[in-house]
Amino acid sequence: MAVRAIEWVGNETGLLRLLDQTRLPTEIEFVDCRTVPQVIEAIKMLRVRGAPAIGVSAAYGIVLAAHAATGDAESFRQLMREADEALFASRPTAVNLGWALKEMGQVIRDVASRPQEERLRALLDRAREIESEDQEMCMAMGRHGGPLLDHAKNVLTHCNAGALATAGEGTALAVIFEGARRNPGLHVYADETRPLWQGARLTAWELVQNNVPCTVICDNMAASLMKGRRIDAVVVGADRITANGDVANKIGTYSVAVLARYHGIPFYVAAPSSTFDFELASGDLIPIEQRAAGEVAEPYGVRLAPKEAGVFNPAFDVTPAELVTGIVTEKGVISPVNADAIRAMLR
């Protein structure tokens, strides 16, 4: 994809430029972030989204915080601590956010007593490394996962887990793109992904940009396609995976996994090792973000439901490990999916 979703512009005193994904697919606009509150606003409003992309953006947000933290070591630590806490609270489900902030926190501890110029240089270097590492992990996931689609004609994906959600080619879409390179006849069904249509607006846009044949379907059409033997595999991303292999991903993923199991269709999850949360034993412990009622009842300012009606709008659901055929990571494919197999692959 020629358009970069995340880009640091300039040197140590530069800025973070984000592709505003709320404007896609009809408009390509960018948001320039020069402060931590601007990065937080971009994360909360889904201008930048996808667990890896949020992590990379938060790392650069720490660099922006350091621009204003020019005092002695103690005041520097305090201001950076406040920035870390604010960024961490911006979206509670995606674990890559916390992982990236921990990585940046180690640098903060190492450089707190150094001159400001050295602080900024070290923080920017680590943020760039996190971005580069994510790009490399995306390529590796494509290499490991692409062969899973060698004999597939049609693959289904839910939400968006491509270059817009990462610093590289994506997680689920990296697998699909490599699958399409190996298997040129591959066709993709993209769930629209209500209530914000990330599949219709973003995934379909990325597939078209990369010349991969695709068809957008309503979320409630997947079962009919599966019954008609028109889907050969499902590939999705993840925002958090617990120690036992339970997967948190965009709301609606769980229902797709249940349908896939019933119809005997392999259900794959693609995620880097930074998405695994070994501190949580199971998906029951994952905090699920609740979003505004207007996203469901009044999308884009058009009232679809009575004002008197209540709205339930969780951003994510949890798919139990037993419904997951395999998890594609940068280190290989974990299958079967259980705590022992995950530890053997990642630890």
Brief description of this entry?
This protein has helices at 36-44, 51-68, 73-88, 95-111, 116-145, 172-182, 198-209, 222-227, 253-262, 294-297, 339-346, and strands spanning 6-9, 15-19, 30-33, 154-157, 187-191, 214-217, 233-236, 240-242, 247-250, 267-270, 276-277, 316-319, 326-329, 332-334. With 347 residues, it is α/β, with parallel strands linked by helices.
Describe this structure in words.
- The protein has about 350 residues and is α/β, with parallel strands linked by helices.
- The chain folds into two domains: about 5-140, Four Helix Bundle (Hemerythrin (Met), subunit A) (Up-down Bundle), CATH 1.20.120.420; about 140-345, Translation initiation factor eif-2b, domain 2 (Rossmann fold).
- About 40% of the residues lie in helices and about 15% in strands.
- It is built from eleven helices and 14 strands.
- It has helices at about 35-45, 50-70, 75-90, 95-110, 115-145, 170-180, 200-210, 220-225, 255-260, 295, 340-345; strands spanning about 5-10, 15-20, 30-35, 155, 185-190, 215, 235, 240, 245-250, 265-270, 275, 315-320, 325-330, 330-335.
- A seven-stranded mixed β-sheet has the order 6-5-4-7-10-13-14, with helices on both faces. The protein has a four-stranded mixed β-sheet with strand order 11-8-9-12, with helices on one face.
- A hairpin with a 2-residue loop joins β13 (about 325-330) and β14.
- α2 (about 50-70) packs parallel to α4 (about 95-110), α2 (about 50-70) packs antiparallel against α5 (about 115-145) and α4 runs antiparallel to α5.
- The chain starts with 5 loop residues before the first strand and ends with a helix.
- The mean pLDDT is about 95.
- Keywords: Amino-acid biosynthesis, Isomerase, Methionine biosynthesis.
- Catalyzes the interconversion of methylthioribose-1-phosphate (MTR-1-P) into methylthioribulose-1-phosphate (MTRu-1-P).
